[in-house]
């Protein structure tokens, strides 16, 4: 908060951090016929830790805040350069064309990215053998590196559940072995539905998640996806799902957005009371 004191002719700043792991809703509104907007923090429970930062300058408030939550890591200079990324580079030819066109136009492209087009069956840590052959992708990434450019692939947190006993997908299997996936209260796996179909989600506080995730990244790099350090497009790192648990395995298939309207997620959401999910209001109006 920044305030100006008309008496002294000086301004001062202070800050407050509400730190909680509880579910929350942050509501911003301007009441009818009011010139003042209000912000309301609704917490469903848990421990509420408040930190007060006295400033008095805005820079000091930010420094005090940083000392509590930790300072951000240093970013590489190329990270601030020009990047190209989108969902829709359907095969490696798109990437090569992007790089060639930028070079021809004299645009200093630092990083070429790929979204989920890269994956085989939309599964993390895989490459499509037809549209992104591993050897060709490795050669492309190495060509970028030789030209002082970089490559970044997407990594979703949602990990595909294997369909049957003949379905081999190591990241999921290793996670089951090491007990790193979020579970229901009864101990069963919490299943959601994301790009590859039905999925599980990492418990980022579990004892073995770091080793499982690191192993998956290393295997991916060994297969040809020689990404630039740890600068990955980490997407949907929270439990982002299109459906709750109790998934119907007979419908296991990659998600299709065309004509699909799912109105009753997440788990325990009552769309008959609150309206289709995604509404801005809780009563469905």
Automatic annotation (TrEMBL):
Domain of life here? Answer: Eukaryota
User: Which ranges carry the Glycoside hydrolase family 31 TIM barrel domain?
Assistant: 73-226
Query: Which CDD domains does the entry link to?
Result: GH31_N
- Keyword tRNA-binding in annotation: no
User: Which SUPFAM superfamilies does the UniProt entry name for this protein?
Assistant: (Trans)glycosidases
- Stored Pfam families: Glyco_hydro_31_2nd
One annotated GO molecular function: hydrolase activity, hydrolyzing O-glycosyl compounds
Keywords from the UniProt entry: Glycosidase, Hydrolase
Q: Name one GO biological process term.
A: carbohydrate metabolic process
Which family is this protein grouped under? Belongs to the glycosyl hydrolase 31 family.
What name has this protein been given in UniProt? Glycoside hydrolase family 31 TIM barrel domain-containing protein
Per the UniProt record, the source organism is: Rhizopogon vesiculosus
């Amino acid at each position: 908060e920044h305030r100006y004191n008309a008496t002294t002719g000086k301004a001062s700043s202070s800050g407050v951090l509400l730190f909680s792991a509880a579910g929350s809703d942050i509501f911003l509104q301007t009441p009818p016929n009011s010139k003042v907007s209000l912000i309301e923090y609704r917490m469903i429970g848990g421990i509420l830790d408040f930190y007060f930062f006295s400033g008095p300058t805005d820079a000091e408030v930010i420094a005090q805040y940083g000392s509590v939550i930790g300072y951000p890591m240093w970013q590489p200079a190329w990270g601030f350069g020009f990047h190209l990324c989108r969902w829709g580079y359907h095969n490696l030819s798109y990437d090569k064309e992007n790089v060639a066109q930028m070079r021809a136009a004299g645009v200093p492209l630092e990083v070429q990215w790929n979204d989920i087009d890269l994956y085989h069956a939309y599964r993390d840590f895989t490459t499509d053998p037809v549209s992104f052959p591993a050897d060709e992708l490795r050669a492309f990434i190495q060509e970028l590196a030789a030209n002082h450019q970089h490559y970044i692939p997407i990594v979703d947190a949602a990990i595909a559940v294997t369909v049957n006993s003949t379905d081999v997908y190591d990241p999921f299997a290793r996670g089951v072995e090491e007990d790193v996936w979020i579970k229901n209260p009864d101990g069963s796996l919490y299943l959601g539905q994301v790009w590859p179909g039905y999925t599980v989600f990492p418990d980022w506080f579990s004892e073995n998640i770091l080793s499982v995730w690191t192993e998956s990244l290393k295997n991916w790099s060994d297969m040809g996806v020689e990404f630039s350090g740890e600068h990955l497009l980490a997407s949907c790192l929270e439990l982002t799902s299109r459906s709750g648990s109790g998934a119907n395995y007979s419908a296991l298939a990659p998600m299709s957005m065309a004509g699909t309207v799912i109105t009753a997620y997440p788990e325990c959401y009552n769309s008959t009371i609150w309206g289709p999910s995604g509404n801005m209001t809780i009563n469905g109006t």
